[in-house]
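Handout, page 2. Input:
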Amino acid sequence: MRYLICLLIIACLPASANDKSSTCYGTTSAGRLEHAVKLPASGNNFITYSYVARTAGRTWVHSEVQAIMLDAWRLLETEQTDKVYKYAETGFKNGGEFKPHKTHRNGLSVDFMTPVIDAAGNSVHLPTHPFNRFGYDIEFDGTGRYEDYHIDYEALAAHIVALHKSATARGHDLWRVIFDPELQPYLFATPYGDYLKTHIEFSKKRSWVRHDEHYHVDFEIPCEKEPVS
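Output:
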């Protein structure tokens, strides 16, 4: 009986009583992370870009980032019931340099593979495997087409909105979203366009890589400054 009571008490404890919250230091381009959490490999409407890369430790994030991401996917289960999503690179368990990325160093940066529709009009995952550098070598044309796939702009816009709503509900925000400026007008043409224009800071210039096969999200969560030695 005492054993059962102990189990019930543990089960009812809040997560923070058993798990340490993450602490980020510095910036996305010069920082580190403590008490990171590893993203789940899959859920009802999402999946990792690579089980190999996940095993290699490339999908760790700040605990609040994970909570925001999971909340957003749950929201999309009811708003975009037939859509599927795929996350990509995030960062190492302790943060720090994360080649070939210039950021992703303190647990607040996440890449998401672009949602796509196939030739039959179905929401499918963009193919990610070693032969296309886990999706990062894919190049869409000026309208968002690649082979038999077309960017699902509505699903993409809905995801960014869901991330923003989930972040603000937890007292945070999105710092910026990096997505190919030439393709952004298609996002703004969706039913979510006005919300995106009002609440989201998009990249206005093309970055050192195009960001068409994936979109990069930096979350705005308070970080500690590195102690002065």
